[in-house]
Write a structure and sequence with these properties.
Strand content: 15-25%
Order of helices and strands: HHHEEHEHEHEEEEHEHEEEEH
Number of helices: 9
InterPro entries: LysR_HTH_N (IPR000847), LysR_subst-bd (IPR005119), WH-like_DNA-bd_sf (IPR036388), WH_DNA-bd_sf (IPR036390)
Structural class: alpha/beta
Distance between the termini: 41 Å
CATH architecture of the largest domain: 3-Layer(aba) Sandwich
GO molecular function: DNA binding; DNA-binding transcription factor activity
Shape: globular
Keywords: DNA-binding, Transcription, Transcription regulation
Number of strands: 13
CATH superfamily of the largest domain: Periplasmic binding protein-like II
Largest sheet: 9 strands, mixed
Protein name: LysR family transcriptional regulator
CATH topology of the largest domain: D-Maltodextrin-Binding Protein, domain 2
Helix content: 40-55%
Family: Belongs to the LysR transcriptional regulatory family.
Length: 295
Amino acid sequence: MNTSHLKFVKATAEFRSFSKAAQFCHVTQPTLSNGVSKLEEELGGKIFDRTTRSVSLTQFGESLLPTILSLLKLEEMIYLNAKEFSNPKTVVLKIGMSPLVSTKFVTLLTESFKAQNSKHEILLIEENLAILDEKLKKHELDLILVPVVKKSSSKNSIRLYDENLFLIDNADSPPSKVPINDIRDKTFVMVPDSCGLSEITRSLLRTTRKEVHEYEGKALSYQVLADWASNGLGSAILPKSKILPHIPKQQIFKSNKPVKISFEAKWLSKDNKPLKNMIQHFKNNTDQIAEGLAE
């Protein structure tokens, strides 16, 4: 099994386009398409449904994607551990992140830190909330980036950014904005209770003093969640960074103010000097990066 082919699958799943995925991977489109086809042949099933207009994961592809992402993270960890061993001066900081966190925001934040600290490497590890908390307690992670599900004060955390929440459903020509009270009677599609999104959705809908109606099935990913909602299985709520550009969406408002989801960084101790420096970098740069992404 060629790890390059796994990277091709990851990029294609993210961009839903062979041409964009090839550009991202710095290969030609035929090279990427052939790589994906070889992997499909090796694994005995189609990973993507291909049409002239779109590329989407099959059920087979959806079932494989989490394992593919885990394998690519392990590959990255092997290279970083080898680099740390062969060059003891290299500092590797391990950051855990919820899949709900904006990848673009994290990339800009960590790359700006690495640009100022050339002997530092950052390993990003995506996990669900319970696993992130457990790994932080065991000191397997230096820092975690997570959504604020329940508000609490802690000296070992900082606010990162807020992101607007949007409604997705199959309404014809929906307006760009929608009050929260206008959607409280809808049935909502959810993802499993592991990343924080479902609890945030429930908490938001409960503020309307109405019972929350949920679709019985669970979507395995944000992409599937949006697809199901767009095709009428129910409605869905997602932050903008997790919605593909072609999917119609409505910004949610409450009392004429945009409804937002907040994200934070959490750690156990700043005794580690490189970690202390990174936290300070986050404090100094999060607002500027968040403002740039909002424009």
